[in-house]
What we know:
Layout: H1 4-21, E1 26-31, E2 46-52, E3 55-60, H2 63-76, E4 80-81, E5 89-90, E6 101-106, E7 111-115, H3 122-131, E8 139-143, H4 148-155, H5 161-165, H6 168-177, E9 181-186, H7 189-192, H8 240-256, E10 262-265, H9 278-281, H10 285-302, E11 308-313, E12 332-336, H11 350-354, H12 376-389, E13 394-398, H13 410-421, H14 423-426, E14 430-434, H15 445-455, H16 461-473, H17 481-506, H18 509-526, H19 536-553
Parallel strand pairs: 1-3, 7-8, 7-14, 8-9, 9-10, 10-11, 11-12, 12-13, 13-14
Antiparallel strand pairs: 2-3, 2-6, 4-5
Helix pairs in contact: 1-2, 3-6, 8-10, 13-15, 15-16, 17-18, 18-19
Amino acid sequence: MNDATLLYAQAELERGVIALSGSRPSIGLAVDPARWSLADATLDDAWAAEVVAGQGTLVGSNPRAVLLGVYDLLRRWGCAFLRPGPLGEVFPRRARAELSASYSLVASRRHRGLCMEGSLSLEHVLALIDWMPKAGFNAYFVQFREGYNFFERWYGQPFDVEQCRALIPPLVEALKLRGMLYHAVGHGFTCEAYGVPGLGWMETKTPWPEEHRGALALRGTTRELVGEAPLITALCYSHPAVQERITEEGARYAGDHPEIDYLHFWLDDGNGNKCQCENCTATRLADQYFEILNLLDAKLTERGLSTRVAFLAYHELLWPPQTQTLRNPARFTFMFAPIQRTTAQPLPTFAEAAELPVPGALAEYRVVEPLFPKTNADLVAHLQAWNAVWKGDRFDFDYYLWHANDASQVEPAKVIFDDLRRQDALGLNGLINCQPNRLFAGTGVALWVMGRALTDGEARFDDLVDEWNQAAFGTGVDTNPLVILRSHAIRDFFERAVALRHRVDAANGADKQAAWDELQAFTATHEAEFALEFDRFCFLEKTAKTMKELRQRGTL
């Protein structure tokens, strides 16, 4: 056994079994993809265990699947992996004779990942990556080139790009050790190609080069940056020179970073901002996007690069192409990003949407004043239109769990579960969720349900919630008192923080300012204590914006 991931899986298996029984296991680990009929054994995870009294075999479709199988096997023997960090793990005592299992499992979804978001340190991300495969996740997406926007929120200034870039190699090393799939970039190629950094949604300190002003989208009669933010500024995407330049940058970056498994090649992050020139308005944006992706594929092929490319349907790209197709579909994975949705209810299936009093509809495509979807049913109509033209690999890129108020997380967890159980009907094959990464305050039920439901198509919602709550708050010989104390402390803290935030929302004038000051002080006092579970920046962000607006209007 010389694969680093298999060696790591063996070490984790020994750690778990020793904690359970006090003795070392005699369980052989191996990779045998031929055991299952999988579309791609490097991407599709499956494992099978044949163990009697701590002796036997565990076989996976790839080294990552073996590690996932180790954690799944330990879970079946009563272990729990509630949240990142040692106080999120429970290892009950078991006699070695009880350590038996005979089963085979094929992960129900190929894509099972989380996207970098929120306020983060390297330690936060490493702890999350360590936890993810324990819940069944197999991928992590570092958004933008080095995640500067997210790391800077934690480290503060001074914090330069080179400092940020130094954080990425240990992060990637942690992913590779576990065999996890590394997704990277997304937005940014549209400005980086012109020497303007795409570090996040902030205003640029680097002016757009005047000699390339013609590359910017024509809006009305001018070509300007939108709010001085290059990441949300569109380009003249139909122009051959623009297509050449951004694809050359994408191909160069892929060549410089062969460690990337999925390179996300997206356009700008704006909406209602697309180019109004004659050529750009003659076709849908998705047709121009496919022209760009075909050019990128040709450049990657010329360089001998097998990098997979993720492309998205988002804002104006929710309308599928009418004339263009991708010439090498095997390279590409489609990403449906329903940002206009409500996550208070699951997406309807196509059949359910058709039976609604107001069925979903695909509005007329317009560049000026676009008619974006207004309901979940509308978004499903867009997905159905895309499914008619794209038959390849695809997943949902969604936005669950922003601005959560429910300490139990049961309600959002149920929406996530219901959405995942509808994926076959919608033609989707997994999820990468865009959310604050430190989302275990109150409880960690929602992310646990997400990972387990993505992995086990037979799992029942109530069983998953009960399993988590019993390990976190239950009583009996299978619990860990220190873990239970931690669970109560996290929940009590979060409930108090939510109550204080509600006080801010309900108050006015001086009372509102006083409540805001108390909320800030309370969360600051406990920030270090709950750093792995609670993102103070994201928790306060919406309220902070409201307070700033009120001060600017002089109403505080």
